[in-house]
């Protein structure tokens, strides 16, 4: 996961400043907001943003202001509104598009707006349930009741057992150590890979000590996930992408998961802030298969709006770029879309997702307990790390660490280009070296290195499905 964690921006000298570095200032607002959300998951992000603005962007001041105010104080951010009462009711997932009305209650979308244009407004949430609506208006597709019921339960039980080993990612916020508002663990296929992940791979810029070998059900289910995700990718290409062709830099190969992040959200307050997933090992335009088990929760997404797009003539009407082949719900540049993820649903985050959208699991005020998981939700994101992006091949910054890959978002001239950056830009408290290099990829999204560089030495991660 590309961390919602704080990333202190490193100043680089003028000669090293790429045109798009302005993207960072926009990013940092998100990151600052994510910090506040992780500190105050009970508050609405919009309200936290107001506090952040009032404190002229100082997270430290905003955090101390929020801390010092009793709940009853006027101006204190509102507590989150109660979630819809139909949370957890999987059988009603047909053709209901709900949106929040002025008074905060959920109303059928048809009552609050014209049926055809799925419009969201700043600060509003558009709730989508129907797989067809989700496929048409978001960069995701969903399959409900994905596994046979028994198989889903066995997998859930296995991962609930595993969850005793999960840890909370810790990060530094000024003088405080802040913990991620949910626990997680990374899984790979073999003990050798486990070691390699600990020593070579970073997550959101930091090395992780907790990597485990994928247990039986997690691997076995991956075969079904692999098949379904490949089918969904082909369907997406045929039905949605321009000229029925894969996106530029999207891999043309079969999607073969070889790593999984498993998250546990224990209770309604646990969450993950808005982020996009780290591209460093996935490469450009990755596809991710995300299986949800246990308590139903809301997966919220919002499109990343470049500053020039927001200020310019496209404001309120997101551009339809080649990478963004679907016309997103109008105005969702400002509002957000909520996709409800019931037990045993497979969400496919398609190739256009990570570069152009951010996603989160919003805290809920109430949840419907699950008969096996109680208050817990388990989520597995099956990922395919590219052999060609092994940390032995990717550039090292002047700190001697593997650089991280990011996509430029802000300026029209450079939007969509990729860059290698010093990992410390993600790790607050570390000065970093301000390393920067544009990243070049071929049409299939594999890196193009300078001539003579060998890329056959690193051990390849083993595909889960190829294991017994
Ligand atoms: O829990 C989820 O559905 C999303 C998790 C996620 O975003 C991640 O692991 O990067
Ligand atoms: Fe994520």
Automatic annotation (TrEMBL):
Whose protein is this, by species? Answer: Penicillium chermesinum
Q: What biological-process terms (Gene Ontology) are attached?
A: DNA alkylation repair
Keyword Zinc in record:
yes
Q: Which InterPro entries match?
A: AlkB-like, AlkB-like_sf, ALKBH3, Oxoglu/Fe-dep_dioxygenase_dom, Znf_GRF
User: Is Zinc-finger among this UniProt entry's keywords?
Assistant: yes
Which Gene3D superfamilies does this UniProt record tie to the protein?
Alpha-ketoglutarate-dependent dioxygenase AlkB-like (2.60.120.590)
Per UniProt, the ranges with Polar residues bias are 66-75
Pfam name, any one: 2OG-FeII_Oxy_2
**Which keywords has UniProt assigned to this entry?**
Metal-binding, Zinc, Zinc-finger
Stretches with biased composition (Basic residues): 1-11
Report residue spans for region: Disordered.
Answer: 1-28, 66-87, 309-329
What is the name of this protein?
Answer: Uncharacterized protein
Q: Which parts of the sequence belong to the Fe2OG dioxygenase domain? A: 256-386
What's one GO MF term for it? dioxygenase activity
According to the entry, every stretch annotated as the GRF-type domain falls at 397-442
Lineage top rank: taxon: Eukaryota
């Amino acid at each position: 996961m590309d961390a919602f964690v704080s990333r202190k921006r490193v100043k680089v000298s003028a000669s090293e400043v790429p045109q798009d570095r302005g993207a960072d200032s926009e990013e940092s607002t998100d990151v600052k907001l994510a910090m506040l959300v992780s500190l105050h998951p009970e508050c609405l992000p919009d309200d936290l943003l107001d506090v952040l603005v009032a404190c002229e962007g100082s997270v430290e001041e905003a955090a101390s202001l929020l801390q010092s105010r009793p709940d009853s104080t006027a101006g204190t951010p509102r507590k989150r509104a109660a979630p819809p009462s139909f949370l957890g009711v999987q059988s009603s997932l047909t053709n209901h598009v709900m949106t929040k009305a002025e008074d905060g209650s959920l109303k059928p979308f048809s009552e609050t707006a014209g049926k055809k244009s799925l419009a969201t407004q700043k600060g509003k949430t558009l709730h989508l349930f129907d797989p067809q609506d989700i496929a048409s208006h978001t960069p995701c597709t969903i399959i409900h009741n994905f596994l046979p019921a028994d198989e889903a339960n066995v997998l859930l039980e296995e991962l609930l057992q595993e969850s005793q080993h999960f840890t909370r990612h810790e990060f530094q916020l000024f003088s405080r150590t802040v913990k991620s508002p949910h626990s997680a663990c990374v899984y790979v296929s073999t003990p050798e890979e486990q070691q390699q992940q600990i020593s070579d791979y970073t997550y959101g810029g930091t090395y992780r000590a907790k990597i485990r070998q994928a247990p039986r059900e997690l691997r076995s289910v991956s075969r079904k996930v692999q098949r379904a995700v490949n089918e969904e990718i082909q369907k997406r290409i045929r039905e949605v992408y321009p000229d029925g062709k894969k996106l530029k830099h999207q891999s043309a190969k079969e999607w073969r998961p070889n790593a999984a992040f498993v998250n546990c959200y224990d209770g309604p307050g646990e969450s993950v802030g808005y982020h996009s997933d780290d591209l460093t090992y996935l490469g450009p335009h990755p596809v991710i298969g995300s299986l949800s088990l246990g308590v139903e929760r809301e997966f919220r997404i919002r499109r990343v709006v470049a500053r020039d797009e927001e200020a310019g003539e496209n404001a309120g009407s997101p551009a339809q770029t080649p990478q963004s082949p679907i016309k997103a719900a109008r105005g969702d540049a400002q509002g957000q879309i909520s996709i409800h993820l019931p037990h045993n649903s497979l969400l496919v985050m398609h190739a256009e997702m990570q570069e152009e959208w951010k996603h989160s699991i919003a805290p809920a005020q109430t949840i419907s307990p699950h008969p096996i998981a109680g208050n817990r939700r388990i989520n597995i994101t099956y990922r395919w790390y590219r052999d060609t992006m092994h940390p032995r091949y990717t550039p090292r910054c002047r700190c001697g660490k593997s650089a991280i890959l990011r996509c430029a978002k802000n300026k029209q001239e450079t939007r969509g280009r990729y860059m290698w950056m010093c990992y410390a830009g993600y790790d607050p408290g570390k000065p970093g070296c301000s390393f920067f290099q544009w990243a070049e990829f071929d049409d299939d999204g594999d890196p193009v290195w300078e001539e003579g560089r060998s890329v056959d030495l690193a051990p390849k991660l083993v595909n889960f499905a190829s294991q017994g």
